[in-house]
Design a protein that fits this description.
The chain is mainly alpha-helical and 195 residues long. 71% of the residues lie in helices and 0% in strands. It is built from 5 helices and no strands.
C-alpha cells in the first residue's frame, strides 16, 4: 500500500485542509473588519489553500470501493466480469450470485419486513392520544372505591338482615308464649267458659 493511501496521509491531508481553510476564513474576517492581521493571514491562508488544491489535483482521486476484489476484471474495460466463488478462489466453488445469495437476501427481506411492522406499531403508539388517560385512571379508581364501599355496605346489610331475621324469630316465639299465657289468663278469669 502506498503512502498516499495510508491512514496517516489521509489524516495529514485533512489536517492541512482544515487548518488552511480556517486561516483563510479568519484572514477574510479580519480583512472585512479592517484589522491589521487581515493583510497577513489572508494571503498565507490563500497560499495554503492554493497549494492544497494543486496537490489534490496532482495525486488524483481515491478509490472508495474496491468492487474489483469481488468481481475480478471490473477495472479492465474489456475484462471478463465474473464474481468470485464462495470458496474464495478463482473457481471450483459455488458462485455468490446463486442460491446462497438468494437465501441470504430472502432472510434479510423477512427481517426487514418484521422491522417495518415493529416500526409501524411504534408509530401508531406515538400517534396515540394519552391526554385523558390520567383522568380516566382516576375515575376508574374512584369507581372501584365506590364499588368496594357498596360491597361492604351490602355485606353489612346482609349481617343486619340475618340479625333481624333472628330477632323476628325470637319475637314470634315470645308472642306465641304471650298468646298462650293470655289464653290461660282468660280461661282463669272466665270460669263459665269451658274449653
Amino acid at each position: 500500500m502506498s503512502f498516499l493511501h495510508s491512514k496517516g496521509f489521509k489524516y495529514l491531508k485533512n489536517l492541512i485542509i482544515g487548518v488552511g481553510a480556517s486561516v483563510v476564513l479568519v484572514g477574510a474576517l479580519f480583512k472585512i473588519m479592517h484589522h491589521p492581521l487581515g493583510h497577513v493571514l489572508l494571503p498565507w491562508g490563500m497560499g495554503v489553500e492554493a497549494f492544497i488544491f494543486f496537490f489534490l489535483g496532482v495525486i488524483g482521486p481515491e478509490k472508495d470501493y474496491y468492487w474489483e476484489k469481488l468481481y475480478p476484471g471490473l477495472d479492465n474495460y474489456k475484462g471478463d466480469v465474473t464474481p468470485i466463488t464462495a470458496g474464495g478462489g478463482g473457481g471450483g466453488g459455488q458462485a455468490l450470485n446463486g442460491p446462497v445469495v438468494e437465501e441470504k437476501l430472502g432472510g434479510m427481506l423477512s427481517e426487514l419486513q418484521i422491522m417495518s411492522k415493529s416500526m409501524s406499531s411504534l408509530k401508531a403508539l406515538q400517534d396515540a392520544d394519552f391526554t385523558g388517560t390520567a383522568d380516566q385512571i382516576k375515575s376508574m379508581g374512584n369507581f372501584y372505591g365506590k364499588l368496594n364501599e357498596a360491597m361492604s355496605n351490602l355485606a353489612d346489610s346482609a349481617d343486619d338482615a340475618k340479625r333481624y331475621k333472628e330477632q323476628m324469630k325470637a319475637l314470634n316465639q315470645n308472642l306465641g308464649s304471650l298468646n298462650s299465657v293470655y289464653g290461660n289468663m282468660l280461661a282463669a278469669m272466665n270460669p263459665n267458659r269451658q274449653a
